[in-house]
Design a protein that fits this description.
eight-stranded antiparallel barrel; mainly beta; single chain; globular
């Protein structure tokens, strides 16, 4: 698993940070989805520069009963596939509001 970015929690509805891959280095924001109508709808929208939507996030509970956010990202640089990741505590971070975007390779 590789860390492909970091987000800092601003409040319960907003995270800000950066997404960094081999071809992308951009600021992103993850904001609460005020239009969520069903459990399948995402809890968060992920926005890139100029507020274009580049992904979404869902609140989840791990087997160890810890909260995390499952994210899905889309960009032309990724080709026709989505990139899946988890937003969780950044290793070695003392700041409880700093989270890593941890990429999970999935077929």
């Amino acid at each position: 698993m590789a860390s492909i970015g970091y987000l800092t929690k601003q409040d319960d509805k907003t995270y800000t940070g950066v997404l960094t891959t081999l071809s992308i280095n951009t600021k992103i924001r993850m904001v609460a989805n005020g239009d969520k109508k069903t459990p399948k709808h995402p809890d968060f929208r992920i926005l890139g520069p100029n507020n274009q939507e580049v992904g979404a996030g869902w609140k989840k509970i791990s087997l160890e009963d810890k909260e995390y956010i499952r994210v899905s990202l889309e960009s032309p640089e990724f080709g026709p596939r989505r990139l899946y990741a988890n937003l969780g505590r950044a290793a070695g971070q003392d700041d409880p509001d700093t989270f890593a975007i941890i990429w999970n390779a999935e077929d």
